[in-house]
Write a structure and sequence with these properties.
Number of helices of chain A: 9
CATH class of chain A: Mainly Alpha
Strand content of chain A: under 5%
CATH superfamily of chain B: MetI-like
Helix content of chain A: over 70%
Order of helices and strands of chain B: HHHHHHHH
Helix content of chain B: over 70%
Number of strands of chain B: 0
Shape of chain A: flat
Distance between the termini of chain A: 50 Å
Order of helices and strands of chain A: HHHHHHHHH
Shape of chain B: flat
Structural class of chain B: mainly alpha
Oligomer: heterodimer
Largest sheet of chain B: none
Structural class of chain A: mainly alpha
Radius of gyration of chain A: 21 Å
Number of strands of chain A: 0
CATH topology of chain A: MetI-like fold
CATH class of chain B: Mainly Alpha
CATH topology of chain B: MetI-like fold
Largest interface: A-B, 38 and 37 residues
CATH superfamily of chain A: MetI-like
Number of helices of chain B: 8
Strand content of chain B: under 5%
Number of domains of chain A: 1
CATH architecture of chain A: Orthogonal Bundle
Largest sheet of chain A: none
Distance between the termini of chain B: 51 Å
Chain lengths: ~240, ~220
């Protein structure tokens, strides 16, 4: 039986088609936000470690500005206020993804900075001794190792992003929350609707965590580390 | 550029008094609940009885992996009709913020309690302190001192997330900004002022917390 079909028995048949549609929008907002947030996090995280003061300052301003207010305030501003300044109206989902990416990218940049700084100094020195260019040092020595440490905290950032996508409902994007509100307003059973919505979010969060675990294992293998053994050693040593 | 200083000056006082009062109530109420309930959750999670520990663990995981907004909807739309519990929008918001952030502060307290050296526990046993006195007189004072900066960060976090309450009709800074914008369909000034307002409070506060962190590390 199609879990999103209208032929499901009772209240499920009435609500699941709408909630599945909403969940699909939530997935789109999450994926869009992830792509933007990851790109911004890498750029701002590396910029924060730059030798040039001006570059560091730009990263710092970006970080403080977007961490200083919440996604909802930024989303409202981008959707309602920015068009007044620029004359261009942005599509609601696009405005939502923009706010999510900019906000969570700021948090992610701290993760990237921390992970890059955690790569042992000897690795950098070895790369210099091998006469690698600064780009090669970053691309082939530092980043692959930093990536392994980045993934667990980035998993948290992505879960926060998934949760924050609920705010796009406030600028009339038809996500899970928007659909649940519409269903409640049209008289569907409130308990069923909200239980289903919570289950959808739990499922999506579980999928993100599962993907990130797989990614972590693969990234660790690429730099010749075994995550399971590494974790065991950390536990044993403590 | 379509910014009107006249409009900005006109709405600023109301936004900064009426809006601020509600935002601060929501923040402080939410924080008090989050900090006390969080401690209770942290202690329950250490219970030796699985029938206490596991349900609490499940509750914490569910609350942490679902959006605050969904939880606010449950409190606002489901609780009154299903359980007969009706609260004002602001109270609903305070409970929502408090419960949501309690699951985060529980983790903070846990790490603080784990960070208290073993010797302190052993000393308490050697002095024959009762269990309750061990917690209130020895372990918690040290654990809480250790996690003060982290709690400070969550206080700022609650402050920043409080505008979500506007979505369940609370007239806080953001809710008021939306009402003011709807008066003449000028969104730029109220929303910009609301954003600035959060920045002006959140950035200096996080600098203060960072200072506190450094002082606790060195002192």
């Amino acid at each position: 039986m199609n879990p999103c079909g209208g032929d499901l028995p009772g209240v499920l048949g009435d609500t699941m088609p709408f909630l599945c549609g909403g969940a699909w929008i939530t997935v789109q907002a999450t994926l869009g936000g992830m792509v933007l947030a990851t790109a911004l996090a890498l750029a701002a995280g590396l910029a924060a470690l730059s030798r040039r003061r001006a570059v560091r300052a730009v990263a710092r301003v970006y970080l403080e500005f977007f961490r200083g207010t919440s996604v909802i305030v930024q989303m409202f501003w981008i959707f309602f206020a920015l068009p007044v300044l620029t004359g261009y109206r942005v599509a609601p989902l696009f405005a939502g993804i923009l706010a999510l990416g900019l906000n969570l990218g700021a948090y992610g940049s701290e993760v990237v900075r921390g992970a890059v700084q955690a790569v042992p100094q000897a690795q950098r020195e070895a790369a210099v001794a091998l006469n690698l260019t600064p780009y090669q040092r970053m691309r082939y020595v530092i980043l692959p190792q930093a990536l392994v440490g980045m993934i667990p905290p980035l998993n948290n950032t992505y879960i926060e992003l998934l949760k924050a996508t609920s705010l796009v409902s406030a600028i009339s994007v038809g996500d899970l929350i928007f659909e649940s509100k519409a269903l409640i307003n049209t008289g569907s059973d409130r308990v069923t609707v909200m239980v289903l919505v919570m289950l959808f979010y739990l499922l999506l969060a579980a999928v993100i965590t599962l993907c990130m675990r797989t990614l972590e294992r693969r990234a660790a293998r690429m730099v010749g580390r075994d995550v399971a053994a590494f974790r065991l050693r950390l536990k044993g040593g403590h | 550029m379509d910014w009107s200083w006249d409009r900005a000056w006109e709405i600023a006082p109301e936004l900064f008094t009426r809006g601020l009062a509600v935002t601060l109530q929501a923040t402080l109420g939410g924080a008090v609940l989050a900090f006390t309930l969080g401690l209770a959750l942290a202690l329950l999670l250490r219970s030796r009885r699985p029938w206490v520990r596991l349900p609490v663990r499940g509750f914490v995981e569910v609350v942490r992996s679902t959006p605050l907004l969904a939880q606010l909807f449950i409190l606002y739309y489901v609780f009154p009709s299903t359980f007969g519990i009706t609260m004002s929008a602001l109270t609903t918001g305070i409970v929502g913020l408090g419960v949501h952030y309690a699951t985060y502060t529980a983790e903070v307290y846990r790490s603080g309690i784990d960070g208290v050296p073993r010797g302190q526990w052993e000393a308490a046993v050697a002095l024959n302190l009762p269990r309750f006195r061990t917690w209130t007189g020895v372990i918690l004072p040290q654990a809480i001192r250790r996690v003060l900066p982290a709690l400070g960060n969550y206080l700022i976090g609650i402050f920043k997330e409080s505008p979500q309450l506007a979505l369940i009709t609370v007239v806080d800074v953001l809710g008021l900004a939306r009402i003011l914008a709807a008066e003449d369909f000028r969104y730029l000034e109220p929303l910009t002022l609301a954003g600035l307002f959060f920045l002006v409070i959140a950035i200096p506060s996080s600098i203060l917390v960072r200072r506190l962190e450094r002082r606790l590390e060195h002192g």
